Model the fold of this input.
Amino acid sequence: MATAHQRTLARFMVAPSVVLLLLWMIVPLAMTLWFSFQRYNLLMPGMEEFIGLSNYRYFLTDPGFWTALTNTLLMVAGILLISVVGGVGLAMLIDQPIFGQGIVRLLVLAPFFVMPTVSALIWKNMFMNPENGLFASLARAVGAQPIDFLGQYPLLSIIVIVAWQWLPFATLILLTSLQSLDSEQVEAAEMDGASAWARFTHLTLPHMSRAITVVILIETIFLLSVFAEILVTTNGGPGYQSTNLTYLVYSQALLQFDVGGASAGGIVAVDPRQHRGALPDAPDRQDAGLRGRTWHAAFPIRANGSSPSSPGRRPC
Amino acid sequence: MQERSNYFRHFMNSVVISIGSTLLGLLVAVPAAWSMAFQPTRRTKDLLMWMLSTKMMPAVGVLIPIYILFQRAGLLDNRFGVMVVLMLMNLPIIVWMLYTYFREIPGEILEAARMDGAGLWNEIRHVLTPMAVPGIASTMLLNIILAWNEAFWTLNLTASKAAPLTAFIASYSSPEGLFYAKLSAASTMAIAPILVMGWFSQKQLVRGLTFGAVK
Done:
């Protein structure tokens, strides 16, 4: 159907995006890799030299690195847990027909649109502040000692702040999926005497499984690089207690000016192996394993003819 | 008074950066999504997956070279520099979202137009453009929201002159006099426009952020 002329035109139209993304990915990444083998400190110009794997050795034996790695994983896992479990619950609550449903939905969704620096500062100063914060006043009202959340439980506090932003996102997506659940099926199950719990585990959850997968995938992408919330609340401290990998690399490069060391950190941070636990494989074609399939199932593409996996899936 | 003019400057930076990066992105992405949707080849699917996979790379992996390149090129604390970075960052999302919208335009309409003797230009102008505009508009809206709230690159690549509201608000992280009132006012004004836009674009948001996997 397409003439050769049209096909050339099509290539020409795709080219700019591909070239830009390639440049954006390959050039800086190659530079990071190159820097990571150099002694390169912005405070000591002219002293650059090739030092092999020293930066990696230094970075990987730095106690800060392991703390940051653990913190990153804890943060992703904690926030995912809160937002998926809470999201399923909230979505089912909002799905009930109640008065003012529209307004409730809007309010539940709102935190997602608040810029990260704003929400983190509001939490820091107005909720978690040990002297003037809301939680401190509440604690005093019941006669308890106010807690300095960000000082004593920095990682947990940041998890709460970031989860507050991402819970609405999960809720929104799970709600969208919930609304496409066939209500007749639910009614039929009800008539057959299935309990509410059985209906939930056998109908609702399986129906939402794809949406849940999507939530986990997308949130992981964003949560691996949580940055602004840490910067404006704890600055990664006290010590390394709330530093994640992103923040560690940032502080090494732009606060200590150690470009070489930070580059090694950057390379470690993008090493796909450590994302495997949380993420299914990036969609490379060789991998026909289960994880590859999960990914393709979550993001079906209906390109002409090339997708045998979805016969009859096309809306007619 | 000083405060107010400062605030206005940062507000305008946010506006310029988010709208500018969105327009730049559309400029590159519309043709790409268009041809992928209407002239798919065997590689289209892989190409889309590859674009998605570029989003998986944590930004720190490229922070240092981008920072140094920008420093050399004098693009640090420059609105255009931030604009380009945000455009590249969101490009996969824009392409994907546009693609899912364009896919829904039925191909039969094109064939009918061709039968009636419409040339390529007429086809684009009178048939496709009117059908594509809603999709482009919602892609734009979502992308403006994402760019407005982006807080990794804006914090790292700007200092004062080109700092958008994300960076400006971050400067409130150390308390000072009259602090709560100012913080509240600045915060409210920073989130209000995006809150309104977000409420209008709920449905598109689901679709855009899940790369069309949940509608």
Residues 302 and 308 of chain A are 9 Å apart (CA to CA). Confidence is low (pLDDT under 50) at residues 273-296, 301-316 of chain A.
